[in-house]
Amino acid sequence: MTTTETLDVQPTPLALLLLGREADPRSERGVNCPGDLPAPSDPDLVERARTAKAKLGEKVFILGHHYQRDEVIEFADVTGDSFKLARDAAGRPEAEYIVFCGVHFMAESADILTSEAQAVILPDLAAGCSMADMATAEQVAECWDVLTEAGVADVTVPVSYMNSSADIKAFTGRHGGTICTSSNAKRALEWAFAEGGPRQNKVLFLPDQHLGRNTAVRDLGFSPDDCVLYNPHKPNGGLTAEQLRAAKMILWRGHCSVHGRFSLDSVEDVRARIPGVNVLVHPECKHEVVAAADQVGSTEYIIKALDAAPAGSAWAIGTELNLVRRLAKAHPDKQIVFLDKTVCFCSTMNRIDLPHLVWTLESLADGKVVNRIQVDKETEHFAKLALERMLALP
Ligand code: SF4
User: Fold this and answer.
1) pTM, full prediction
2) Ligand 1 centroid to 43 CA: how many Å?
3) Where are the domains of the chain?
4) Where are the alpha helices (DSSP H) in the chain?
5) CATH number of this structure's domain 14-128+349-376
6) Tens of pLDDT along 125-165?
7) How far apart are CA 203 and CA 206, in angstroms?
8) Does the C-beta of 27 come closer than 6 Å to ligand 1?
9) Is the CB–ligand 1 distance for residue 339 below 6 Å?
10) What Rg, from alpha-carbon coordinates, does the chain have?
11) Which CATH number fits domain 259-338: 3.40.190.10, 3.40.50.10800, 1.10.357.10, 3.30.565.10?
């Protein structure tokens, strides 16, 4: 499989779902969003959010993902990436309500890592993740059957990105694999391939092909030809048993619709416009973009790199636009631009807005728990196993 062949993207049903109150029941997000929301034009929204939050006091803990809107981040008790936020939630056992301003899989992870007594709440149940939706439990079970048939399941370790549903995390735990984040993907792959590791020769990387390929090629020195792309929409993933046997990395055909938008053209264009610019991109970007960048790293890495950058330096950042705008505002002494010419928000993250937050907080203050995200016991058990393996990574 050549790199070029892997760059085409598959359509997702997401665009059809964005504006509807009902969502696809097969997806990792919830099915509807009950309740009457305050009007976005209500001039008292900020005051209402403040009042409800003050009324709830220590009972509520609000988590804000880095890609959230400013109007929501303003009310967050902590901000961070999905894994940091799930751990922050676990570190607040006294909070009865964890309001997760992020997307569905993040709220599931927080539910897995918090106690039974804590309710994890997602202000809009339709805030899913298009990447997580690209790997369903049924598709992954079918893939495992294909690997079994090809005689490679016994030597394959699943490594799943944090950006996956609880079902996929549970599959990973059940089959001896680990979860990874964009910060520790290299360590997770090293563990999976290590001598003395559970099995030595193959990784099934779910669901982000780009993070899997970028980590294998950039950090572990694999050739792009060591990677094959498993397409769940094709019989046998579109691969022969020989291809599966020869591959080191079996990459799931998923991608992030936000980071997947950056192209080699955007890198070349910004270098022509801003001489000396440092191009810094997230590893969910396509391999050709990552290969052309000066630096590659997770959202936490990007934030730290800009904090440490000298005044007067210029940066083009390839990640979600809300975060890039906030970073530009926080560092007026540096030139920080968005890598692409067109806007590139995470549209599902953006579903969490002030009206949804106000509705959630006021409902909780009235003693009504809304939009609770609960992972069933068995799924939780195996998903936790995979998360614990990640925490134990060297
Ligand atoms: S930015 Fe991409 S991976 Fe993150 S929640 Fe949005 S669609 Fe999913």
Assistant:
1) 0.88
2) 30
3) 14-128+349-376, 132-257+381-391, 259-338
4) 14-17, 45-56, 70-73, 82-90, 104-113, 130-133, 137-149, 166-174, 185-193, 209-214, 241-246, 264-273, 287-292, 299-308, 321-330, 354-365, 377-391
5) 3.40.50.10800
6) 999 999 999 999 999 999 999 999 999 999 999 999 999 99
7) 9
8) no
9) no
10) 21
11) 3.40.50.10800
Rounded-to-integer distance, Cα 386 and Cα 191, Å: 13
Q: Tell me yes or no: is domain 132-257+381-391 CATH 3.30.420.10.
A: no
Instruction: Report the alpha-carbon distance of residue 371 to residue 208 in Å, rounded.
Output: 27
pLDDT at position 343 is: 72
How far apart are alpha carbons 287 and 375 in whole angstroms? 34
Q: Which of 65, 131, 347 to mutate to test the pocket of ligand 1 (most atoms within 8 A of CB)?
A: 131
Please write the tens of the pLDDT for every residue from 287-305. Answer: 999 999 999 999 999 999 9
Are the beta carbons of 327 and 317 closer than 8 angstroms? yes
Other C-beta atoms closer than 10 Å to the C-beta of 59 total: 12
As given in the structure block, the two tokens for residue 49 are 């959010």
Amino acid identity at 233: H
